[in-house]
Specification:
By secondary structure, this protein is of the alpha+beta class. 43% of the residues lie in helices and 25% in strands.
Length: 245
């Protein structure tokens, strides 16, 4: 388990304490940060990316839904302890009106881009099936399971993932969450690859079912296809109403 130390309201992973002091101003007891290279805002959450001494990290600032942030922090620590490649936790700061989480950049490129390369498809689809089956065999369920959340690091040949605030551990009725993960992934294949997406997803699903030993396979396939249809219908309705997805 990662060791944490408290620095003026910041809970910092001890391993990264020396780096933390490069961005912390003791006089003001606050962060001293360069201009961000990345910014994104979505409802109650702002994300900014920074680079200091060649090291990239991201800070998520929550103005609401603090339990989501706390859940992400807990899941990051647990998943890394279990050996999964997820963004490395840096620090968390909790205040009455906001909550901040910092993580280091997850290396690699998203599968949503890399799978466009036909030469890489077979290996990456196998690696994705391997990763998701490993999660599910440990009764862990991502619940935000889309291709752009999985990153392949070519140098180390490691497949990692991010956006882990919704990860569930050992839930009751686990089949429900297994099907949701698989259906989200199936829909994601369709979104990124159109007509070819269904074919690529079936290749993934066949390998996943073999590795995860999910039985009966026909039932899993049926439920996944039905759930994909539900996601497709819900997304279409949301887009017609002009909602941001």
């Amino acid at each position: 388990m990662m060791s944490i130390t408290l620095v003026f309201g910041f809970e910092v992973v001890i391993e990264h304490l020396s780096f933390f002091y490069k961005i912390f101003d003791k006089k003001s007891q606050n962060l001293f940060l360069p201009k961000p290279f990345f910014e994104r805002e979505k409802r109650y959450r702002k994300v900014k990316g920074y680079e200091v001494d060649g090291q990239r990290f991201y800070i998520k600032k929550y103005s609401n839904c603090f339990e989501e942030a706390n859940s992400e922090w807990r899941n990051l620590l647990r998943l890394r302890e279990l050996g999964f490649s997820v963004p490395e936790p840096f620090f968390i700061r909790k205040r009455p009106d906001k909550l901040e989480i910092a993580t280091f950049e997850l290396k690699g490129k998203p599968l949503s881009e890399l799978l466009k390369n036909k030469e890489l498809q077979a290996n990456l689809i196998y690696k994705l099936a391997e990763l998701l089956s490993a999660l599910h065999l440990k009764r862990l369920y991502h619940q935000d399971c889309y291709l752009n959340h999985f990153f392949w690091e070519e140098e180390t040949e490691i497949l990692g993932f991010l956006d882990v605030s919704r990860v569930l551990s050992n839930p009751r009725f686990s089949l429900k969450y297994q099907i949701k993960d698989l259906a989200q992934l199936g829909y994601s294949f369709e979104e990124y690859f159109g007509e070819k997406g269904a074919f690529l997803f079936q290749k993934f699903l066949s390998r996943y079912l073999e590795l995860s030993k999910s039985k009966p396979a026909w039932l899993v396939k049926f439920l996944v296809e039905f759930k994909i249809w539900l996601i497709r219908r819900r997304t279409k309705r949301a887009r017609l109403k002009g909602k941001k997805l």
